Amino acid sequence: MRYFVIGDEDTVLGFSLVGTQGLVATNTSEAQAALEKALEHKEYGIIIITEDVADMIRIQVDRYLFSETFPLIVEIPNRFSEGGSKDLKKLVNEAIGVSL
């Protein structure tokens, strides 16, 4: 099982440094295309998506958050988000209920 990230350029670049593939999405059509690409490949068990990109395609994201069991979609804040932040490991652990 592998991860796939969808978000702004900085987020995707950061994840690529640790070997995670992903796509940059700056508008709704890019976000939809990135999610479709991630869903095409069954080896991606966890799709990490920034909150701002998830909001662009909320209907599709919610479909997987609330009705589908696989893949798991985890929303994370981007670097421009206000408020407190959690590390990625903590966000994933909370989403799947298992300590990684």
Describe this structure in words.
It is a single chain. With 100 residues, this protein is α/β, with parallel strands linked by helices. It has one domain: Rossmann fold, CATH 3.40.50. 45% of the residues lie in helices and 22% in strands. It is built from 5 helices and 4 strands, in the order βαβαβααβα. It has a 4-stranded parallel sheet with strand order 2-1-3-4, with helices on both faces. Helix 1 links the parallel strand 1 and strand 2. It is globular and about 25 Å long. The chain starts with a strand and ends with a helix. 28% of the residues are buried.
Offer a concise description of the structure.
With 100 residues, the chain is of the alpha/beta class.
What key phrases describe this protein's structure?
alpha/beta; Rossmann fold; 100 residues; globular
| CATH topology title | Rossmann fold
Radius of gyration of CA atoms, rounded to a whole number: 12 Å
Helix content: 40-55%
Largest sheet data: 4 strands, parallel
Number of domains: 1
What is the level 1 CATH name?
A: Alpha Beta
N-to-C SSE string, H for helix and E for strand: EHEHEHHEH
Helix count equals 5
Strands, count: 4
What oligomerization state is this entry in?
single chain
